[in-house]
Amino acid sequence: MPVSPTDAFATRAIHAGQEPDQRTGAMAVPIYQTSTFAMDEVGVMKAGYDYSRAGNPTRTALQIALASLEGGRHAHAFASGMAAIDCLLRTVLRPGDHIILPADGYGGTYRMIDQFGVPWGISCTTVALDDLAAVRAAITPRTRLIWCETPTNPLLGVSDIEALAEIAHAAGAQLAVDNTFASPYLQTPLSLGADVVMHSTTKYLGGHSDVIGGALVTSDEELAEAFTAFITTVGSGAAPFDAWLTLRGVKTLALRMERHCDNAERIAELLVSLPKVARVHYPGLPDDPGHTVAAKQMRGFGGMVSFTVVGGEEEAVKVCSRTRLFTLAESLGGVESLIEHPHLMTHASVADSVTAVPPDLIRLSVGLEDADDLAADLADALS
Ligand SMILES: *Cc1c(COP(=O)(O)O)cnc(C)c1O
User: Fold this and answer.
1) Which residue from 278, 305, 309, 379 has the highest number of Cβ atoms inside 10 Å of its Cβ?
2) Is the confidence at residue 349, as pLDDT, over 80?
3) Is 122 part of a structural domain of the chain?
4) 178 closest CA partner among 110, 260, 257, 93
């Protein structure tokens, strides 16, 4: 192993799980596009693989890299972020169990519990996770999991991972953190006491808007074994080519996140100065309610910014179609800047639920274009 756990993040991102191929010397990890693997004898695998539903060397390479970057012992790569959440919920929760969800979080997570968990006997309470007293009050004797997302999608709310881990563990529950918005470059929840980290690798880890994927990372052996059994049974693991694309993105994560943070900070400061903007949500702003906790647990403040406009929903919708470089689209975390209206787009399915988002809110995924060009584009759209 040429890479050590003490190597810096940028080094591990390029080398962990990515040694040159032993047989051919290929620098890039091969795409093992195969369903099955030849055996030498009955029951004796050549390299630990028998069938790609259970495991595939390209997926393994990505998993080694992700485990290294999150500082966990085991990573599992999935076909999507939602497939990762599904695996975690179905391996941890049993009928009668209770889960605490963030009041302001990814709509799909809430929808999964509401539509598929509740009919199977799971109960759920949504709480603003920055209110630790409210989290303590929501704990029941059957609480098995606190689901944390920080910063949240789309309001960029920040919650204290260390404090939530303490509350969960005191109650005999576990803490899972959706680390999609921060990426492991900016925040490593396992080092703050979380039991498992979840990613939509579709976003910053992949980073190029060309692949859907998800991951779970943990150092808990029991959880890791359950995830392996689940993937082997269900087949929701990442396909070889998808794992390869994600791994290619991971190599440049450190560089990309630095620029995402710089560009987003510039855009947040610009938005604060514009009269058409009512309120800016960005944990990097010194007067943002999440700033202190974010500064404590994050290396930078990320590439996501959201804001409300003067003129309500109608004006917010208009602004979304007035930008030239910020493309009107769902998703986030790619090299290109995106703009969207959460109430009518990404969060439309939770519009009537407790996790509804303000109708005058606009969400930006600030990409890697030139910061002056991005600032001029937004200033024009909001003039
Ligand atoms: C996109 C996203 C997900 C879901 O991931 P998919 O890869 O789309 O399945 C979960 N959580 C957050 C915070 C996300 O942004």
Assistant:
1) 305
2) no
3) yes
4) 110
Average pLDDT over the chain reads 96
Q: Is residue 96 located within the same domain as residue 238?
A: yes
**Residues 150 and 213 placed together within one structural domain of the fold:** yes
- Across the range 209-222, mean pLDDT stands at 98
Task: Tell me whether residue 1 is in a domain.
Answer: no
In a domain, 320, yes or no: yes
* Residue type at 215 in one-letter notation: A
pLDDT band at 48 (very low <50, low <70, confident <90, very high): very high
User: Residues 140, 158: contact at Cβ < 8 Å?
Assistant: no
53: annotated active-site residue: yes
Whether 178 is catalytic is yes
- In angstroms, what is the span from residue 108 Cα to ligand 1's centroid? 7
Answer with the one of 221, 250, 279 that is the final residue of a domain: 250
pLDDT band per the 50, 70, 90 thresholds, residue 1: low
Amino acid at 314: E
CA of 82 to the centre of ligand 1 (A): 6
Give yes or no: residues 313 and 203 share one domain.
no
Give me the CATH number covering residue 270. Answer: 3.90.1150.10
* For the CA of 332, the nearest atom of ligand 1: 15
Cβ < 6 Å from ligand 1: which residues? Answer: 80-82, 106, 108, 149, 153, 178, 180-181, 200, 202-203, 212, 214
Average pLDDT over residues 352-371: 89
Could you tell me the distance, in angstroms and rounded to a whole number, from the CA of residue 44 to the centre of ligand 1?
Answer: 38
Residue with tokens 């990309």: 256
Segments forming the whole domain that contains residue 313:
253-381
Neighbour count for residue 34 (Cβ, 10 Å): 14
Percentage of residues in the chain having pLDDT higher than 90: 93
